[in-house]
Design a protein that fits this description.
heterodimer, A: 582 residues, 21 helices, B: 85 residues, mainly alpha, 3 helices
Chain lengths: 582, 85
């Protein structure tokens, strides 16, 4: 779909970006020490940190990806919400306080604290870098998708823009500015999602005028390389044609044409009885030219409230084991991954003590849980709004906002953009800190003063930012939520087993931790590289030829990492066993 | 080189151990509820998708329930940690 850039949206967007960068410069002038740069001096109030948790965590995947998935595939998107939130309990109940007690700047600090081991520090640094870069990919993809309707820019321009702005933010102020950007972003995201949900419920559901579409919308490529839709040039001019939006309600229960305002439960009841026209994307080749078809797909509302509509989850409805394992593997990764994400873990070092770490996590859970509740209504609201872009599910929430008002669209889009900025900033701070502390000071043993450490972290941040831009360009078009699932699986396989074994198994040795982290990281990355989804989406090969049977690695690689830690610990010398943590 | 950014709290070991025990018990309880949901979706799809509570499919009701349970468990842990310590 081609969008008309909105000048209001551009103004709001620019104000948001200028405000964010100005805040970074202001706070950057205050944070001079490495403790200030990497951990905000441990001086962030627990409530601010809790909302900043929400800001860090509610990424492009949460806002754009989940709403888009709910809009096109119903309850399947909400499965991510459930998994994402459930993971926070692992963080609160077993990880938060020990991590705060044992560490100083990075996740590796906590792992290495009992052994003073550069090997552990290097392995944990390696996993932090891998997870940060993999998690950066969906954020960049989300950014590229977002700037198309917001600013009228190309996808690649959006990716480069976000990468550049974030590097400026991180290089100017580090963790202090990142925390306050996250605080503002998290608060605004929850507030505007609530406003959007109230508007969805107040509008209710209406039957769309006209008859159901019977033919697909076909995008083809003309001889000169330009795109055609149904044989007409694609565009916004009078002699051109644009992709038509979908999400039209064809029928409501009891022959109604409009429901009027609805409460939260009644909305779900009415949607359950509705028939809605969505679309299904089919990509094929005719001759040597690619063809994309957006075929009409009529769904019953009640069916959209059960899992199994999205290709990722359709295995739930099948009898075969592999698709069911794929589903369970994803849900396990979401559950175990949150407490293993580097940019979340380093946030525990920004508060003063364990009680603050605990309280900030509870605030984070409340804000994040409330937001995820709203995503179901935003997604379902988009599904019946008649404003869905069949070519990009990630645009569901901003376009729903646009169906109410241009100002709301501008605000939601700008917030979504800062969502990406905030999460990317957090990840790059984590990666930069990891390079400075775990590799340069830890593994290489270089004696650096505060300013040198900060300089190393800033240079590393620029390199990671450049890598994120390249990765964002390579993965254009993939659903951001799916990509996030992989990042969670890698984090959960690499980091959580080592953390848990260190806390609960006194026989854990330093070799056990090192091998557990390395095997967890490498096995999950390899599994993803060889899985059916990568064969189909990235390599353009037949997914049946993939070397592993399903796409989500967690159910194999998380237990594998536990087993490796246990076995290596049992077979390595007792002199390397950890001293008691208690 | 590595100066602690914070670390101002020094709790007795038994307090830390007791809180860790509370955390593990609550996590196990929540994990059971979460695993139940995943198990029902994977192995009792027909039943969970057709059963309704007040007109709402059990899938949605259970999902909402897990979100609320997360909050309840988090607040309970906060409360128990405070009183116990």
């Amino acid at each position: 779909m081609i969008y008309t850039p909105s000048s209001l949206a551009v103004v709001v967007f620019l104000l948001m970006v200028i405000g964010t960068v100005a805040l970074s410069f202001y706070l950057g002038s205050k944070a001079k020490s490495s403790a200030g740069y990497f951990a905000a001096g441990g001086g962030i109030h627990w409530f601010v940190n809790g909302i900043a948790f929400a800001g860090d965590y509610l990424s492009a995947a949460s806002f754009l990806g989940i709403c888009g998935m709910v809009a096109f595939f119903g309850f399947d998107g909400f499965l991510y919400s459930i998994g994402f939130l459930a993971g926070w309990l692992v963080a609160l109940l077993v990880i938060a306080e020990p991590l705060k007690r044992l560490g100083k700047y990075t996740f590796a600090d906590a792992l290495a604290s009992n052994f003073q081991s550069t090997g552990i520090r290097s392995a944990a640094g390696f996993s932090t870098l891998v997870v940060s870069i993999v998690y950066l990919i969906p954020q960049m993809v989300g950014a590229g998708a977002l700037v198309k309707p917001l600013l009228g820019l190309q996808y690649w321009q959006g990716v480069v823009l976000v990468g550049s702005i974030v590097v400026v933010i991180v290089v100017t102020a580090g963790m202090v500015s990142t925390t306050y950007v996250q605080f503002l972003k998290g608060g605004l995201l929850v507030l505007f999602s609530l406003i959007l949900t109230i508007l969805v419920l107040a509008r209710g559901i209406q039957v769309a005028p006209g008859v159901a579409r019977t033919q697909p919308q076909r995008i083809t490529v003309a001889f000169d390389g330009s795109k055609l839709i149904d044989g007409i040039p694609l565009g916004l001019k009078s002699d051109q044609k644009n992709v038509e939006p979908v999400g039209r309600v064809l029928e409501l229960s009891n022959g109604k044409t409009s429901t009027g305002p609805l409460g939260p439960i009644r909305f779900l009841n009415e949607l359950s009885g509705a028939r809605v026209e969505l679309s299904q994307t089919n990509k094929k080749t005719e001759g040597d030219k690619p063809v994309i078809e957006y075929a009409p797909r009529v769904v019953q509302g009640s069916d959209m409230m059960s899992p199994g509509n999205h290709p990722t989850f359709k295995g739930i409805r099948q009898k075969e084991w592999y698709p069911k394992l794929d589903f369970m593997s994803l849900m396990l990764a979401l559950f175990a991954g949150t407490a293993s994400l580097p940019h979340i873990l380093i946030r525990y070092y920004t508060v003063k003590d364990q009680a603050s770490a605990r309280k900030s996590t509870i605030v984070g859970i409340a804000a994040i849980g409330f937001f995820y509740l709203l995503t179901l209504y935003i997604g379902f609201g988009a599904m019946v709004s008649g404003a869905l872009d069949p070519s990009d599910s990630n645009m569901a929430a901003p376009l729903l906002a646009k169906s109410f008002s241009e100002l709301l669209f501008a605000a939601i889009s700008a917030i979504a953009f800062t969502t990406v900025l905030g999460t990317v900033s957090g990840l790059i701070v984590a990666a930069g800190g990891c390079v400075a502390h775990d590799f340069v000071a830890g593994m290489l043993g270089m004696q650096l003063n505060d300013q040198q450490l900060i300089r190393v972290a800033k240079i590393a941040s620029m390199v990671v930012g450049a890598l994120a831009i390249l990765a964002g360009l390579a993965f254009e078009g993939m659903n951001v939520t799916y990509l996030v699932g992989w990042a969670f699986a890698i984090a959960a396989s690499a980091n959580l087993p080592a953390l848990l074994m260190l806390l609960f198994y006194k026989g854990t040795t330093k070799q056990g931790v090192i091998w557990g982290v390395l095997i967890g990281t490498i096995s999950s990355v390899l599994w993803i590289a060889l899985c059916p989804e990568m064969y189909k989406s990235l390599y353009g090969l037949d997914p049946k030829e993939a070397l592993v049977p399903f796409s989500q690695p967690g159910i194999v690689t998380i237990p594998l990492s536990f087993i490796v830690i246990l076995l290596v610990s049992m077979f390595t010398s007792t002199e390397h066993r950890q001293p008691s943590i208690d | 080189m590595h100066h602690p950014a914070n670390s101002t709290e020094h709790e007795p070991d038994h307090v830390i151990a007791r809180r860790q025990k509370i955390g593990v018990i609550l996590l196990l309880l929540f994990t059971l509820a979460y695993a139940g949901f995943i198990g029902l979706c994977a192995f009792a799809y027909d039943w969970i998708s057709k059963t309704k509570i007040s007109g709402i499919p059990l899938t949605v009701a259970y999902g909402f329930g897990l979100l609320f349970l997360s909050l309840v468990v988090a607040m309970l842990y906060g409360l128990l940690s405070r009183t116990r310590s």
